[in-house]
Amino acid sequence: MTTATLPETPAAGRGSPALWALTALGAAGMAATYAVAGPERFWADWLIGFVILVCVALGALFIVALQHITGATWSVPLRRVPERLAALTPWIVPVALVALLSLPVLFSWTQPGAAADPVLALKTSWLNYPFFIARLAVCVAVWVWSYRVLVTGSVRQDRTRDPRATVTMRRYSPVFMILLALTLTAFAFDWVSSLQASWYSDIFGVYLFAGAVTSSIAATALLTIYLMRRGRLAGVTGDHLYNLGGLLFGFTIFWGYIAFSQYLLQWYADMPGEVFWFRERTTGAMAGVFALLGIGHFAVPFLGLITRNSKKSWKRLCWVSVWVLFMEIVDVFWLVSPIQGHGLHLGWPEAAFAAFFLAGGLLVVTRALRMGEDTPVGDPFLADGLHFHLR
Amino acid sequence: MPESVFGVVGLFDSADALMAAIPEVRARGFRNLHAYTPYPVHGMDEALDLPKSKLGVLVFLIGSIACVAAFTFEWWTSTRAYPLMTGGKPYNGWPGWVLVMVESTILFSTLTTGIGMLFAFNKLPYFGNPMLGSEAIASVTRDRFALMAASDRGALDVAGATEALRAVGAAALEVVYEPDHARPGVGWWVRTATTIVAASAVAGFGTWWAIRAYPTIKPMVNMEVQPRLDAQRPDAFFANGRGMQRPPDGTVPRASVPILDTVPDDAGKSLMNPLPVTAAVLARGRAQFNLHCAVCHDRLGTGHPWLDSTYQAFPVDLQTGPIRAAADGYLYWVISQGIRTMPGYAADISPDDRWAVVRYIRALQRSQDAPARDLK
Amino acid sequence: MTEATLPAALRVEPLVQGDVTLAGLDDHIRGWTERKPPRAWYVAITITSLTALMGFAAIGYMLYEGIGIIGNSVPVVWGFLIINFVFWVGIGHAGTLISVILYLFRQRWRNAISRIAEATTVFAFVCAMMFPAIHVGRPWFPYWLVPYPNQRGMWVDFRSPLIWDVFAVLTYFTVSLLFWYLGLVPDFATLRATAKSRTRRAVYRLLSWGWVGNARQWVHYEKGYLLLAGMTTVLALSVHSIVSMDFAVSQLPGWHMTIFPPYFVVGAAFSGFAGVVLVFAFVRTVMQLENYVTMRHMDLLNRMVLFLACVMTYAYLMEGFTAWYSADPFVKYIFANYVFGDQWWAGTLTIFLNCVLPQLLWFPKFRRSVPVMVTVSAGVTVGMWMERYTIVILSLHRGYLPSSWGMYLPTRYDFMILFGSIGLFLTLLLLFLRKLPVIAAWEVKPDIVFYQKQSAEAGHA
Question: Measured between beta carbons, which residues in chain C are less than 8 angstroms from residue A380?
């Protein structure tokens, strides 16, 4: 199949005015949060948005690199979707710069009493301002650079039709995977785990990774279905969706496995140095969130996608994906919010932050829908991918 | 009796040729088509209009039942049948049950998959399959692809089918007949049943004889029999031949108060129950009473009559007048020091618990002879 | 875009090579089940079965004389037997992962190697299941591990990792045996028609249950295969996680790590893949399977080894980092003890063999060199055994109470049992290679057809 048979890419607009309005409304609500609910609430919510942004953007890059590293051809016609989703990556820079201001407010190791704490004192060579900021800088630089190699390179291939670009991306992907493992772990330990710096769990990087990939697959599926329904992904069939659904199903199990084993091990050993973290997140007002997470992040998508037909059906995949994305928000909320103390910190400020980040993110993604062709027309394996049928 | 026709089969060199032939043969009016291939050919189920396999539904059903059953069983044993405190975990420690639930679910679903696929859905074993007697079977499990126009309820136009298959390019055409002995007769069932009964009898008597002749072989005798004292087992080490020894006379538990009185009636005068009458004290007393006393005195304190004849033990009915009239100190002394055939429990029950037992005995007595005002 | 204009790095080699036909594959497989094996086979099986016998003798003597003859002693109450258990369960995982997970990802290259990989799973589990049985303190009461109604009114403690182990290992063995057997059924049907002797044909007839390869049968068969693959994946994940939880639910420094479950699963796959590479490095040339198990297969297997080596390195890094980050003096000490302590060689060797040596496989030339892959895989197999040694022994002998610190020295019986289990594994493997179809013919045949079509097209072009 050649490009002639593919439909022309309709130019997306500047983004719908509703999204702009929602973003502005969210921003106003955020300002009100700072003024009314106080800086702690503001920064905790900002951090939630920051973490989710990083998760979705990096998850999208991971999906792209995964396809290159395995040499899979079925996913070639879909690859532009996660590539466009990865356009969120450069936006990590401003969000991260703002998030730096949260350090003195939220993190236990920046508090005045930290130096006197015998456990935190042992960690000062890792948890101090210069090193912490340097790690963030390195991580963000790696992510933006990888975005340039994997996505910008792929979009350029639309014009050049040079198969050597594919070779470059395939060569870079293993490197990216190693860098992703290290940077995402560092990010998880720094920006989530070190909120309560005396707690530690060495699976934590993988936990965040599992959630990131799950939510990115869900976002990819949603965007794919959106484009398919508009007739912009000719040749993409239910068989392609089946594979996406299968990946979502598999990573749902993976997330459930990682989450449960982390919980089980700390619950079982019951060591005071670690179990307090789960105690804050599983008792009192958070008990409901914990139960919702267990059922919603695992059981619902698991049962929702268990049959073969459900993975092929765009309607089913659509609502499961929306639900999974919602659960990713719940997950990060569950991780970050309890540092503000007892009780459920949920109300209009969270709605404002959700509006800002969701609408802003959608604006970025709709803009990215103009980036390159809808399918990577320069990829030598595009025809193979379009001919893909389930066995 | 002439053999009945099972079908007409023809061979193709490739799966594509077979797939192309199916609609043509069907167009000639042969509906009951079977394809035999050495490996699963994709698209064949659609070409032949085969229904989708319902195996998944069965597996999901059995798997769900296994999951729920495993959870119920774990809940029942851990919280009801045998609640055992380990590692400071609650009885209802569900995180610890999840893994056994997962394993049980998978075990039963996979067994359902394997057994269900082979036996329920494919109806194997089927050694009487007419195809097994055909010439074509050697090729279709190897490198050829066969299409069969099979007889539909005994009716098949053999000549027409042969012609149709020849027309689409099938080679090595062959008429496959139903073997006469497709279904086993009475004699087969008798032989099989006799064999099973005989084999069971031989195995059973053999086992019985082996156990009689070689009662117990202990291959691990050095590990099993070690020089150590076992609780509640005889042992030659001590003079009284018991493995478990009572503490020496006069042994008192920590925080105990020695009883100076030598006669229970004295104790009844000198000792006062230090515990108040509260629900907590009574609960504590009930726990100790049911643990230590109820085995002879029964849970109501009335005593088990059958113990008399079996063990020559005559547990006193705690509901009778003399015991009701006895002072708290008297009961405390008896519990501690023992009386007649009853041993003392000073080494087993702490002093406070003994006093709680006394309170509980009082409650028991009142429960069996409640004045009218208690019932309002 | 046609194949010819692609850069060399993007071209895909076919999965089979040379002059292969469907019937040729069948004859090749059947040939090995019928012909008299080479002299080397007899030499090999004599050695391995004698080694296995030596192991059984040592186990018998241990059961007779008592557990004191092996090196276990307080505080190191888990010794070689548990290391061997974890090691064999790990080896067993590769079969499942190759056969099942790669099947789910539709990696067709697993077709040619799945049968032998599944066989290694089953045999490794035979070896693995021995160890918990002989390791329990009172081996004459193994049935106490099973929840059965009894007159004592007692039930097993379902929160105990030992009970999880029983369920996990028994389930895994049952399922892998079932999966292996189901895969064999169509191949038995092939042999039923072509085997030379009458007895063989009768045996294969029974084993294949009257399978005829009807399309109606294949529909259910494929569905069942897919379902089994999905469930076995979850099973593989859970089984070695449960093995890891034998350690990780405790509070012992060095054992209580939340990364243990996935880390053990990856380690299991790692040692298993290395084991499969070792088996194929010999089998594919000795049994002349080069046309079906090509160098591309070996390349891909070695890529998996390399990938898993990188994940292992990540896990080691995380463990080391978290040990420091925990700020717990005991945890810090135990990890330093792994590489700097009395038995520093155990930890150091583990890191070298599992993380450093496999990095050779980044080079395409080495991924296709038999001497290199044998060296690396043998190194990984030893390295993964050493890893379990490090975890089991070095954590136990330095617990929370310095007054209870001790030293561990294995005895000759430990080694006899270890080598005996290797002998048992190899004996079973040799018997399998001699008597059963070593390639899943019904899975490879479509690849041959595809290759034939491709060659024909290339010929015309």
Answer: 1, 6, 10
Percent of chain A surpassing pLDDT 70: 96
Q: Strands B338-339, B342-343: parallel, antiparallel or unpaired by DSSP?
A: antiparallel
Is residue A320 within 8 A of residue A248, CB to CB? The reply is yes
C75-86 burial code (b ≥16 CB/10 A, e <16): ebebbbbbbbbb
E-assigned strand segments in A42-98: none
Q: Could you tell me if C21 lies within 8 Å of chain A, comparing CB atoms?
A: no
List chain C domain ranges. 16-136+167-450
Instruction: Break chain B into its structural domains and give their ranges.
Output: 1-179, 184-217, 264-370
Q: What is the pLDDT of residue A384?
A: 81
Decide: helix, strand or coil at residue A29. helix
> Mutation test of the interface with chain A: which of C111, C326, C447, choosing the one with the most A Cβ atoms within 10 A?
C326
In angstroms, the Cα distances linking B135 to B39, B98, B177 are 19, 53, 11
> What is d(CA B171, CA A333) in angstroms, rounded to the nearest whole number?
69
**CATH architecture label of B264-370:** Orthogonal Bundle (1.10)
Residue pair C153/B82 in contact by the 8 Å Cβ criterion: yes
Average pLDDT score over residue span A237-265: 91
Residue C291 has pLDDT above 90, yes or no: no
Give me the pLDDT at residue A65, please.
93
Give whole-number Cα distances, A189 to A54, A203, B179, C372, in Å: 14, 10, 73, 38
pLDDT given at position B305: 66
β-bridge mates for residue B145, sequence order: B12
Strands B5-12 and B33-36: unpaired
Select the more confidently predicted residue: B294 or B223.
Answer: B294
Cα separation, B191 vs B233, whole angstroms: 53
> What length is written for chain C?
461
The per-residue pLDDT for range A217-231, each reduced to its tens digit, is: 999 999 999 998 888
The rounded percent of chain C whose pLDDT value lies above 70 is 99
As a dihedral over the C-alpha atoms of residue A210, residue A216, residue A217, residue A218, rounded to 10 degrees, the angle is 110
Contacting subunits of B (3+ beta carbon pairs below 8 A): A, C
Asked if B140 and C214 touch (Cβ cutoff 8 Å), the reply is: no
Residue carrying the six token digits 């100790």: B288
Contact A268 B60 (CB under 8 A): no
Q: What is the mean pLDDT of residues A61-89?
A: 90
3-state secondary structure of C95: helix
Coil vs helix vs strand at C106: coil
Q: Which residues does chain C have within 8 Å of residue A170's beta carbon, measured at their own beta carbons?
A: 9-10
Contacts of A268 in chain B (CB under 8 A): 87, 89, 95-96
Tokens of A293: 């997470």
Q: Give start and end residues of each alpha helix (H) in A122-236.
A: 129-147, 153-160, 163-191, 204-229
